[in-house]
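Hi, here's the filled form for the chain we discussed.

Project: internal
Contact: R.S.
Residues: 487
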Amino acid sequence: MENKNTVLAASAAVTGAAVTKDGDLMVTIQDDTGTQTPIFAGKIDVSEVVEEELQNYAPISAAIRPTVTGNPAVCEDSVAWGLQGLKIYGKSTQDGEPSPENPVSIVSVGEGGSFETFYHTQNLFSIKSALGGLETDNFSIEGSEDTNFTVRAKKQTIGNSIFIRVPINIPVGKTVTISGKTTASLNFRLQNRNLDGTAASPSKPLQNTETREQGYSLFATCNPFGVGDVVVQEGQTVTFSEIMVNYGDSALPWEPYKSQTITISTPNGLPGIPVESGGNFTDADGQQWICDVIDYGTGKKLQRIYKLVVDHNTTIYTASQNDLLSFAINCPQRAQKDTSFSSTQGVCKIKSMCDYYEQYMIGLVGSDKNNAFGFYNTDYQTTTLFINDRRFSSVEDYKAWLKTNPVTFLYSLETPIETDISAEELAAYRALQTYDGTTVISTAEPVAGIEARYILDGTAAWNDIQAIKQAVASLQNQPEPYQSKDE
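And the returned structure, exactly as it came back:
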C-alpha cells in the first residue's frame, strides 16, 4: 500500500475516506476548530490490503454522487476529484422548411470532426488565456494573474487605437453576465462579434448581460483609455481587477478562473433529431431528442442516427402507381419505426430530417404529393426510402441533378451502432477533475445536453441536512395556535 504514512502522519483527525476503482485515495481531515478538508493521499494497491485494513477506508460507492444535466451542466458543491460519469448528447438543427428550390441545411454538432468541452469554475473570463492575440505595438498587458492586470500604453496614441477583446467560450443561445473593477472610466462589456473577433454584430450595443448570437462569437471588450480621439500618453496605465463572467443574467461573486479542456472526436458528427416522443434525451425546455451519445462512463459511443447522402452514385430504382413516378433507394441500415403511428398502406413514420424534401407518411407512392419523401420497412428487415420529385421523369435525369445537388437524410436506427471511444480520449477524460466549490461543464457547440456525475462535498451536504433538520425542528416546536373557548 502506497503513501500510508501520508494519512497516519496527519496531525488532524481523519473523518472520512474514499477510494476509487483505480486505487486513488482521498481522505477528509478535521482540525481543532472542526474544519473539515478533503486531501489527496496517494494510491492504494488493493491487492496488498487485507480485509481488516479495508474496513478503515470508505469505498467510493459510499460517497454522494449526484447527476446533473444541461448545457452547461453545473456541478454544485463539488470537490477536487475525478468525474464519475459523463455523457454528451448530439443535436441537429434546421432553420426552416426545405424544398428543392429552397434547400435548408441540416447542422449537426461536431460536423468538423471534433469539438471542445470545457470544465471550469463559474468564472469564464481569462485575460491570461487570451494574451497571445491581444497585445499590439500600442499597448501591453502586465500581471501574472487573472485576478489583477494592468494595461500600459507603449507610446502616445489615441483611445480608439487601444481595444481589447477576450473570447468567452459559450454555446449559441446561452446568456452570461460580466462584472468587475477598474481604474478606467470604461470597464469590460459583452459584445457579439464575427467569429474572428473583428466586426461587431449590428443588432445589439455593448451590454453587461448578453446572449451569444448564431453566427457570432461572444467577447468581453474594452477601450481602457476611452473612445474617440482622446490622447493617451506613453506609459499611461489602467488596472482591472476581479473581472467575472458567469452564466445567467445576474453577476455572481468573483472567484478565480480555472479551466480544463478536452477535445471530443466526432469523425461522423454527433447528430440528434427532435421528436415528440420516444427520445433518449429531454432538454431543459422539455424537447425530446433521439441522438448519438458519447458515454465516457462506459467508454462507448452509441450511434442512433444514420446519415444517408443520396447523390449521382447512389443506386436508385423507380416505383410507379397511378402513372405517377417515385424514386426508391434501399437504405444501408434499417430505420426505427415510430410505433405511435400506424398505416394500412405499410408506409411507416420514421424520425428523420432532410435538407431538400418534407416528410410524408401515408401512401407516398402513387400519390400526387410532390417534393416529399417517406420510408417503408419491409418484411425482409430492410428499409426503402421513397422520393417524389416530379420535376424528373427518369433516373438518369434525377441523377444528373443530384450530381450538383446531393440530398442528405438523417433517420433514427432500429438497432444502434456501438463503437469504442479511443484510449487517448478516455485517458484525457480520466485526467479531468471537478473543482472545490462549483464546476461548470460546457461545450463549444450547442449539444442537446450534458449529463455529468460527480463527487459531492460531504461537508456541504451535511450542513444542508443539518439546516433542514433544524428548520423542521423549529416548526415542530412552534406552540399550538390559540383558540378561544367559543370557537
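Let me know if anything looks off before we file it.
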